[in-house]
């Protein structure tokens, strides 16, 4: 299925919440996505969940699969499909291990990894990991600095006021040079500043076309102040709602390079291929 008429590539966000999705479902979706010429699949991350009256937080006896492990499994069933973390919570992950996992996944996949990163937002999740939500931005920036050194430098090191990584070697380096592209998640001012400093891409979630266009304008001004251009950045937008061709066209006109369709967490049938076809058909109508 060609998407050339949309003038933008399509991605697929897969909630990967067990038991709504089994490993077999995720494999079937990855195969179907590649056959449909979807550019990238994106998998989220939450390490534990908590009881809450907030529907967004209420998983009950359910939870997301680890994205790195699942993406490594999907490598065996795909050849072209790009594999994205959408997004990995680098304010919570140990960066040395994460750098090694991503570099390994890049080798296993033949250089098909896109690294979506975010700071996280669930206070209880930070507390469970022995970290403070208020430190999430600082921790994310530190992790990004460490990742870049581990992926790019012959001898890696990192130093700030609270952490010292002594000179060391991290091999193998990723297949993609200088490293897999980093897509910074979020649309707050802090997130846009992080894109400007560290991103090869931007992946905002839940924005309508007007808000996306406004925030992209802010990002453009921030990039310009650092002698960078929007045109040098890959913009991937995930509306996180049902969309049709008019929406896809609107995001494309506003500057999106990829529009990500969200596979529903609450499944409508047992046939993931049929549901994916419905999403893709909706994106080509309207």
Give a nutshell description of this structure.
With 286 residues, this protein is an alpha/beta fold. 38% of the residues lie in helices and 18% in strands.
Can you walk through the features of this model?
The protein is an alpha/beta fold and 286 residues long. Helix content is 38%, strand content 18%. It has 9 helices and 12 strands. It has helices at 23-35, 67-75, 95-109, 123-128, 136-152, 189-198, 209-225, 245-253, 272-283, and strands spanning 9-13, 17-18, 40-43, 63-64, 82-89, 113-118, 156-159, 164-168, 182-185, 201-203, 234-237, 258-262. Strands 1-3-5-6-9-10-11-12 form an 8-stranded parallel β-barrel, surrounded by 5 helices. It has a two-stranded antiparallel sheet with strand order 2-4. Strands 7-8 form a two-stranded antiparallel ribbon. Helix 6 (189-198) crosses helix 7.
Determine Rg (CA atoms, Å).
18 Å
Number of separate strands: 12
User: What's the N-to-C terminus distance?
Assistant: 18 Å
Q: Which CATH top level class fits?
A: Alpha Beta
Please tell me what the overall shape is: globular
**Count of helical segments?**
9
Report strand order across the widest sheet: 1-3-5-6-9-10-11-12
| CATH homologous superfamily label | Luciferase-like domain
Total individual domains: 1
The percent range for helix content is 25-40%
Instruction: Determine the CATH topology.
Output: TIM Barrel
What percent strand? 15-25%
Kindly report the average pLDDT value. Answer: 94
Quaternary status of these chains? single chain
From the helix content, strand content and strand pairing, which structural class follows?
alpha/beta
| Low-confidence runs | none
């Amino acid at each position: 299925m060609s998407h050339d008429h949309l003038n933008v590539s399509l991605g697929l966000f897969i909630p990967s919440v067990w038991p709504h999705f089994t490993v077999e479902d995720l494999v079937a979706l990855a195969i179907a996505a590649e056959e449909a010429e979807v550019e990238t699949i994106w998998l989220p991350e939450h390490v534990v969940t908590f009881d809450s009256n907030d529907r967004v937080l209420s998983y009950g006896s359910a939870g997301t699969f680890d994205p790195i492990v699942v993406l490594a499994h999907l490598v065996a069933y795909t050849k072209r499909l790009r594999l994205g973390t959408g997004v990995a919570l680098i304010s919570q992950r140990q960066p040395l291990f994460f750098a090694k996992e991503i570099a390994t996944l890049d080798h296993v996949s033949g250089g098909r990894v896109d690294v979506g990163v975010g700071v996280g937002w669930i206070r209880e999740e930070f507390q469970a990991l022995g970290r403070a939500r208020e430190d999430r931005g600082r921790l994310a920036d530190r992790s990004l600095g460490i990742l870049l050194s581990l992926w790019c430098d012959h001898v890696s090191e990192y130093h700030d006021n609270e952490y010292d990584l002594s000179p060391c070697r991290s091999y193998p380096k990723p297949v993609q040079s200088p490293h897999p592209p980093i897509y910074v998640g979020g649309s707050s001012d802090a997130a846009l500043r992080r894109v400007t400093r560290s991103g090869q891409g931007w992946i905002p979630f839940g924005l309508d076309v007007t808000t996306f266009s406004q925030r992209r304008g802010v990002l453009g001004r921030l990039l310009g102040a650092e002698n960078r251009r929007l045109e040098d950045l890959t913009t991937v937008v995930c509306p996180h709602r049902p969309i049709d061709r008019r929406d896809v066209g609107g995001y494309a006109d506003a500057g999106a390079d990829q529009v990500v369709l969200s596979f529903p967490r609450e499944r409508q049938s047992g046939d993931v291929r049929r549901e994916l076809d419905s999403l893709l058909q909706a994106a080509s109508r309207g």
